[in-house]
Each structure stands twice: as C-alpha cells, then as structure tokens.
Amino acid sequence: MNILITGCAGFIGFHLIKNIDSKKINIFGVDNLNNYYSPRLKNLRLSILKKKNNFKFYKLDISDYNKLDKLFLKLKIDVVINLAAQAGVRYSLINPKDYIETNMLGFFNVLDLSKKYKIKKLIYASSSSVYGDKKHYPVREDEIINPKNIYSLSKKNNEELAEIYYEQYGFSSIGLRFFTVYGEWGRPDMLMIKYMLSKLTKKKFILNNKGNHYRDFTYIDDVTFVLKNLIFKKIKGNKILNVCSNKPIKVSKILNILNKLYGKPKIQYKNKLKIEVLKTHGSNSKIKKITNLKKFTDLDKGIFNLVNWAKKYLHKI
Ligand SMILES: NC(=O)c1ccc[n+]([C@@H]2O[C@H](COP(=O)([O-])OP(=O)(O)OC[C@H]3O[C@@H](n4cnc5c(N)ncnc54)[C@H](O)[C@@H]3O)[C@@H](O)[C@H]2O)c1
C-alpha cells in the first residue's frame, strides 16, 4: 500500500509516520519545511523518519497544483493523509494569507487530485476551533459550527469542500477535528512546550486571561492510534469526527503541573483574545466506537512523558 502524508515534518505527521511499522506500507512524505516555527525541529523530526526504509521525503508546497499533480501521477497512491497546514489561531491575525494559500488552496489541490487519481481514502485534519464558543458541552459532531478566526474558517472551508466533493462526485473522505494535541516533539507555538521553552530561555511567558480557559488536551499517541486505525477501516461517505479526550482542563492547572515538573518561567499577564474560544470540550463517543479505542491517555501520564522528553531535547530545538 502506498500512502502520501502531507505535513510529514510536522508534529502529528512525524508521530504517525514513526509509528507505521508495516513493511507492506510505502510512505511518501510531503512538507515545505516553512519557518513558522523552528525549522531545526522539523529537520530533527525528518532525520529520524529518514532512517526508516519505507519512507521517502519530497520537499514540496501543496499550494502548487502542477507539482503535486506530477507527484500523484508518479507515486500511484492508495491513501492520502493531509496534515499540512498553516496552524495556529493567534498567527492568523498576523498573516492571514498563509491560511488562504495552504489551508484553502492547498487543501483544494489535495482533494481535487485525490479525486482525479481515484484515491481510495482521503483523511484530513480539521480542528476543534471550527465550533467557536458554545453554550453546551461536550460538543458533538452535528453541532452548528461557528469559526471565530481565519484559521478556523479555513478548516470549515475544508469540511464544506469535502462535503461538496462527496455530493457532486461521490468522493469519500474523513475530516478529523483534533482538539489541542500535546506530547513529545510537539509544536513550540503551543502552550506546554512554549511554557517550558520560556523557562529554558529565560523569556517571559505571555499568559492570556490568567489561564482561565479550558482545553480538551489530547495526547499524541491517541491521535496516532486513531489515524493508523482509520487507514485500514472501510468507511464510505463523508465523515467528520472529533478526536479528543473529553476531559477539559483549565490552562492554569496545566501550568501548575509544569511548574512542579519542569520549573516556572516569568509570566506577563494579558487580556483574553477575542479570536480565542473560552473552552473546548468534545464528545469522543463516535471516534471511540469507530476505532475501538477504549480509553484516552490520562493527562498525568502524557505530561510526564512530555516533560521527560523536554528535559532531554528542548535545548536542541
Ligand atoms: N496540534 C494540534 O493541536 C492541532 C489541533 C487541531 C488541528 N490540527 C491540525 O492538524 C494538522 C497537523 O498539525 P500539527 O500540529 O502537526 O502542525 P505542524 O505545524 O507541526 O505541521 C504542519 C506541517 O505542514 C507543513 N506545511 C505548512 N504549509 C505547507 C505547505 N503549503 N505545503 C507543504 N507543507 C506545508 C509545515 O512545514 C509543518 O511541518 C494541521 O492541519 C493542523 O491545523 C492540529
């Protein structure tokens, strides 16, 4: 089986590829290695992946239709997993263009070429942020979505395009709404690693809303399990699934745990950002049922693994 994974040098792509052991699977990874965050971290991840015999890397931008078309033609792909994206809610205030080019145009290219080359399955990353602020939790997949920023809007657009491609052309796909994924080799623009990096580099950590927001933190191994499982599942139609632990935690509580395990940086307090939601909390009953995942990893265990990794590697990224 030939699998194309975009965003392969990213956090989730790296873990997924690292954990695909089957020698019967050839993995083709695509990434443009942009400098939104430390290219050194992306290259470190890539150097680990390049040790695998069944992995081949292509430096390519998914917003380039013609180059992507040539790759699809050459590789004879069975399954596509689209994880390439301009991530981050806050950065969408500073550079909205990247979200349009990669997340909207780039996603269209991947979707259209997957249809053109009759790919058996397209799995793509959406985001919990599509929900916006809600009155009732946990949110289920059929809840009305209401993006509050350009990042979330781009993900809503992906889901809608995928739906139209199913209705018009009968092309099936699975959109995964990931909720704040954390873990080893994670993103330095996200809460936990950013906090520990502030401590390490003696920089002030900017804390919005005094940490009084809630996030449904989801450990990377659970996300990897779900993705690996879905590669082999027979699923028809256009599916949208939450991927979350269903256990929201206050951000300030997470920081207290990190203070104890890693140390406390200096903190600069700022107001809540309008583009950010106060709470994410998803229902995970659908994804548990489909993938037969019994239990999501406990936060204590996930943070313990992350901090151990950070003590060894954070100075290298
Ligand atoms: N990590 C989370 O908590 C989270 C939550 C919700 C959704 N998501 C989504 O999951 C996916 C993976 O997230 P991640 O945390 O691994 O992010 P990441 O930023 O670590 O990985 C994305 C990768 O895509 C690459 N990329 C960006 N633009 C590209 C382009 N035009 N062409 C080719 N490659 C490009 C980047 O270089 C990066 O390596 C993204 O779509 C993200 O929006 C992640």
Task: Describe the protein's architecture and organization.
- The chain has 317 residues and is an alpha/beta fold.
- It is 42% helix and 17% strand.
- It has eleven helices and 13 strands.
- Strand 5, helix 6 and strand 6 (173-178) form a beta-alpha-beta unit.
- Helix 1 (11-18) packs parallel to helix 2 (39-49).
- The longest helix has 21 residues, at 96-116.
- The model has no long low-confidence stretch (mean pLDDT 97).
- Bound molecules: nicotinamide-adenine-dinucleotide (NAD).
- Nicotinamide-adenine-dinucleotide (NAD) binds next to helix 1, strand 2, helix 5 and strand 5.
- Nicotinamide-adenine-dinucleotide binds next to helix 1, strand 2, helix 5 and strand 5.
Task: Detail the topology: elements first, then pairings.
Elements: E1 2-6, H1 11-18, E2 26-31, H2 39-49, E3 55-59, H3 65-75, E4 79-82, H4 91-94, H5 96-116, E5 121-127, H6 150-169, E6 173-178, E7 181-182, H7 191-201, E8 205-208, E9 214-215, E10 218-219, H8 220-232, E11 238-243, E12 249-250, H9 251-261, E13 267-270, H10 285-291, H11 299-313
Parallel strand pairs: 1-2, 1-4, 2-3, 4-5, 5-6, 6-11, 7-10, 8-13
Antiparallel strand pairs: 9-12
This protein binds nicotinamide-adenine-dinucleotide.
Nicotinamide-adenine-dinucleotide binds next to helix 1, strand 2, helix 5 and strand 5.
